[in-house]
Write a structure and sequence with these properties.
Blueprint (H helix, E strand, L loop, with lengths): L9 H7 L2 H4 L7 H7 L1 H9 L16 H11 L11 H10 L11 H13 L3 H10 L4 H6 L2 H15 L18 H6 L24 H13 L4 H17 L11 H17 L9 H13 L4 H13 L6 H4 L14 H14 L6 H17 L7 H14 L8 H13 L5 H8 L9 H8 L6 H36 L5 H38 L3 H6 L1 H13 L20
Helix pairs in contact: 1-5, 3-4, 5-6, 6-7, 8-10, 10-12, 12-14, 13-14, 13-15, 14-16, 15-16, 16-18, 18-20, 19-20, 19-21, 23-24, 24-25
Protein name: NPH3 domain-containing protein
Keywords: Coiled coil, Ubl conjugation pathway
Family: Belongs to the NPH3 family.
Length: 568
């Protein structure tokens, strides 16, 4: 059997090549090689064959770098560049081309070029470091990686804009997609601060190089807003675009690499609240879920979102569920954990943040309620989390009513008991007049809830009437002090009419209260169910007829302007 042909080494290929193959007008000379390299000199001393190609087969380098070294050994000029300098230095060190062996040595020549021409330039340093990725361990052992990293860090300390302009924390809406895409782009002003004609970017580096450099920048107190800008650029370049591709377009290696990047980015993220926009954190979390990142990575992102949830939008919480066995359209379990993180970390005495998040949850529930697969327990658990945290506040219940209405509309198969469970999280006493009027006509609501809403409206009207009666004499006293003597008779007459009207209104309120009590007792006995279901709308109209049209007082006028309280 014939032996299979092995791949020729760069040195062996050069040895057998003609001059035209590489533009090298010479053959390898044993004497020239030995004069410049201590390692080659020792190898050639032990082997006297004319063909030395087999001795050079194990040299760890590529053909282009070996050719440069061979040209130097034979006295020809060589072209050093940022792209080849680290590989040349590593090969020169391996071959022992140092001052000890020869005063005219490649290590010294390449070292001077590296120090004077590469490290002094931002662009050239990044290019050199990028080229070292294929021989990273060798370059690290010679401290070449550290030298490049220190050069980059020093330049960033002097001018942080080399990392990009700080991100603008823009709160976006569904109708503002342009802001969503442009909010975090680096400012073109950065080019004004770079002396090189074309600015290279540290985001070109592999994660193995990028992560330790960024970590060192944070340790050296580079302003975090510039670090955050660089992190976003890195994610945009290596993760965000690729995770949108179909599975068959992305190799396993690429996905593993992206997973490694997203996990490293989470470790590098600053902990400061508000420094990273919630929309970017949400985008990272979605990518981490898609790439099946480590649990610590996903939990870390959820904690960060939770700490600044009052700065988020509904869009930031719409995290698509993943996997073939997904039961709901959105990852509501992740949203629950984010909510719990927010509430457990909220220490301010000002409850406005709690109200903002509660309203955010209302809007989120309204958005996801149209999912036919959204479970009743999921809906209730999210609503209860919001309700428990804002129990002592005066926030409006219209948002929760809107979410409940959508859920009942999209889940018509619910039993009466389940519909009452959904409405259990609704605080009827905090609904606006417009929402109450809509609810009174809403046939999807359980009858018991409708009665509760009507009773709540009746109590509000009674309270308004009582307050008006109590402060009436005071207002009249002020009026009397301002009027002239000849108007006293007229004022007394108006006051008497007002008092009579107040008494009449009070009687109507008491009558309405009795009716509500009677309805509640009938419902409890179960005999009034069908009658009330048919006459929900008429009850509301009757209430307006009895109260709304019988007084000119603004406080008790229930002719409210109708408006759409839950746009679909």
């Amino acid at each position: 059997m014939g032996k299979s042909k092995s791949k020729e080494s760069p040195s062996r290929k050069l040895m057998h090549a003609s001059s035209s193959d590489y533009g090298v007008p010479f053959s390898l000379n044993r004497g020239f090689l030995a004069a410049r390299s201590s390692k080659l000199a020792a190898m050639l001393k032990e082997n006297h064959e004319d063909d030395i190609s087999h001795l050079l087969g194990d040299i760890p380098t590529d053909s282009e770098t070996f050719e440069l070294v061979a040209r130097f050994c034979h006295g020809f000029d060589i072209n050093l560049s940022p792209e080849n300098i680290i590989k040349v230095l590593c090969l020169a060190h391996y071959l022992g081309m140092s001052e000890i062996h020869s005063t005219n040595n490649l290590t010294k020549k390449a070292g001077l070029y590296f120090q004077n021409n590469v490290l002094s330039s931002w662009n050239k340093t990044i290019k050199a470091l990028k080229s070292a990725e294929i021989i990273l361990q060798q370059a690290a052992d010679l401290s070449l990686v550290d030298a490049c990293a220190e050069s980059i860090i020093a330049k960033v300390l002097h001018n942080p804009r080399l990392l990009g302009e700080p991100m603008r924390n823009v709160t976006t809406t569904d109708d503002d997609s342009e802001n969503d895409e442009n909010a975090y782009k680096s400012n073109v002003k950065r080019r004004l601060f770079v002396h090189d004609s074309k600015s290279e970017d540290v985001t070109l580096l592999s994660i193995a190089l990028y992560e330790p450099i960024i970590r060192a920048m944070v340790h050296r107190e580079v302003p975090l807003e510039y670090v955050a800008s660089s992190l976003f650029q890195y994610l945009s370049k290596w993760v965000f675009l690729d995770t949108k591709r179909e599975e068959d377009d992305s190799s396993t290696y690429e996905r593993n690499s992206q997973r490694e990047i997203i996990e490293a980015m989470e470790r590098l993220l600053p902990q400061e609240r508000g420094l990273i926009p919630s929309s970017l954190l949400s985008k990272m979390l979605q990518s981490a879920i898609i790439l099946d990142a480590h649990t610590e990575c996903k939990s870390g992102l959820e904690i960060r979102i939770g700490k600044q949830l009052d700065q988020a939008t509904v869009k930031d919480l719409l995290i698509p569920a993943q996997g073939y066995a997904k039961e709901e359209q959105y990852d509501t379990e992740s949203v629950k954990r984010i909510l719990k993180n927010f509430y457990s970390n909220y220490t301010s005495t000002d409850k406005s943040g709690l109200v903002v998040v509660a309203e955010l949850v209302d809007d989120f529930l309204a958005e996801v309620s149209s999912d036919i697969d959204l479970k009743l327990n999921t809906f209730l658990s999210l609503a209860e989390l919001s309700q428990a945290a804002t129990g002592g506040t005066n926030r409006n219940s219209d948002g929760m009513y809107r979410a409940i209405d959508i859920y009942l509309d999209k889940h018509r198969y619910l039993t009466d008991w389940e519909r009452e469970e959904v409405c259990r999280v609704l605080d009827c006493s905090k609904m606006s007049p417009e929402a109450c009027e809509h609810a009174a006509k809403n046939e999807k609501l359980p009858v018991r809830v409708t009665v509760q809403i009507l009773f709540s409206v009746q109590l509000k009207l009674k309270d308004n009437v009582t307050k008006r009666i109590q402060r009436g004499p005071d207002n009249r006293l002020l009026k009397l002090e301002e009027d002239e003597e000849d108007a006293k008779g007229t004022s007394n007459s108006e006051e008497a009419m007002m008092k009579a009207e107040m008494e009449k209104m009070g009687n109507k309120v008491l009558e309405l209260e009795k009716e509500c009590h009677m309805m509640r007792r009938e419902i409890q006995r179960g005999s009034y169910q069908h009658k009330i279901q048919k006459e929900k709308t008429s009850m509301w109209k009757e209430m307006k007829r009895k109260i709304g049209c019988m007084t000119s007082l603004h406080e008790t006028n229930c002719h409210v302007k109708k408006k759409k309280v839950h746009p679909r």
